[in-house]
Every structure is written in structure tokens, then in C-alpha cells.
Amino acid sequence: MKKISIMCLIFLIALSIYAVSRHQNGIRISPEQKFKLWLNDTVKHIKGKYTISFDSTLLTITDSFSYIVKDGKTTYSSNMNNSEAIQKMLKNAHEPSCLNYRVIAVRYDEFTPTEIDVLKYETYAEFPLIKVIAKDMIINYNENRANINSAYIINSQLKDTTLVEFSYEGNKVIKRHYKNNRTKNRITY
User: Fold this and answer.
1) What single-letter DSSP state applies at residue 98?
2) In the prediction, which pLDDT does 170 show?
3) Residue 114 and residue 121 in contact, taking contact as beta carbons nearer than 8 Å
4) Shortest CA distance to 59 belongs to which of 86, 40, 79?
5) 53 pLDDT above the threshold of 80
6) Which of 83, 95, 122, 162 is the most exposed place for a label (fewest CB within 10 A)?
7) 60 within 8 A of 108, measured Cβ to Cβ
């Protein structure tokens, strides 16, 4: 009796090892499950600041950096790739009007589950903070999809604030200026 129970136990162990080792074709995991498995493996390799949503379907990696521009050229940067991306966005919007300034910025890289079977995640980047500090002014830019949408300009010398809204029509950039006294000016480049 003892020999039969040992043989049955060995047979069950061999059967379970065989079942686990076989590829199970009919079983699909959801995009969220695939993302969470990737997230579990990836988090331990992330250097720097990151946040994970409460349901683990959004990973946000935060990168803060700054750089200095003198005579229109970047002279110092703590992150050259990000500074080049911001400079390109500012150039496309014909901004800023000064040649010497410092930029303080934050970049978010966000990862979410995807419905595309061959991918584990979708990713996109945004810059929630782009602040230009010049001699007499501070400019806070808002970015969306690699375009500057608006700028809030504080001129300390004139004690004046201006909101500038940008719109893009082909290669033209249209700027609408709203002074603190609500006057409206339109400039086309």
C-alpha cells in the first residue's frame, strides 16, 4: 500500500511538472495583467522619481532638469535631450524674445496598458512645467503634444502680466496677447 501511494505521488508530481511546462495556447491575459507583470519587473530598475496609480495601470516617471541659454545657445544642461526638445518647441513658437535666460522644467513619461497584443504598454511624454527666467521677466509655458499652447508672462520691471495664447495654422504661428487690462492684440508670424 505504501509503495502504491508513493508511486501515485510521483506520478502526480510528474504530471503537474509536465502540465506547467507545456505552452497553454488557449489562455490569454488581459492588457492590464500584461502591463502589471511588466510593471512588477520594471519598477526595480527605475532610477529617480516615479509614481504608480492606485490601480497599477499608470506609471509616471518624473524628470526635473534645468539649463542655461546665452546668446541663443544652450551653454549648460542637466539633461541635453530634454533641453533640445524644449528649445525646438520654443523656436517653433518664436519664443522667447530674449537671448539670455534659464529654463527650469519637468518632464513626465507616462506608461499605460495597451490594447495592441504585441506591445506591453503605451507611452507618452509631457512637460507640465516649462519656466523661463530672464533678466526682468518670468514666463510659464503650457505645452500639449509638443506644441506651446500658452504663456503667462510676468514682467517685474513694468509690473505687468500678459497671457499669450498660441494657435498654429500650417507653418504660421498666431499669438494672441491678453494684457492684465484685458486688451487683445494679434500677432502673426
Assistant:
1) -
2) 79
3) yes
4) 40
5) yes
6) 122
7) yes
Q: Using alpha carbons only, what angle is made at residue 27 by residues 25 and 31, rounded to the nearest 5 degrees?
A: 120
Task: Please give the model's pTM, rounded to 2 decimal places.
Answer: 0.73
pLDDT tens digits along 93-109: 888 888 899 999 999 99
Residue 44 CB burial class (10 angstroms; 0-12, 13-18, ≥19): exposed
Cell digits for 176? 494672441
Look up cell 504663456; give the residue: 151
Nearest to 163 by CA among 180, 188, 145, 142: 180
Quick one: three-class SS letters along 132-154? Answer: EECCCEEEEEEEECCEEEEEEEE
pLDDT given at position 183: 46
Q: Are 143 and 136 within 8 A, CB to CB?
A: no
In Å, how far are 65, 68, 79, 86, 185 from 83, measured between CA atoms? Answer: 8, 9, 6, 5, 30
Q: Residue 46 phi/psi, 5° resolution?
A: -80, 130
Cell numbers given for 185 = 492684440
pLDDT number for residue 155: 86
Do 105 and 131 meet the contact criterion of CB atoms below 8 Å apart? Answer: yes
Integer Cα distance of 189 and 94 in angstroms: 8
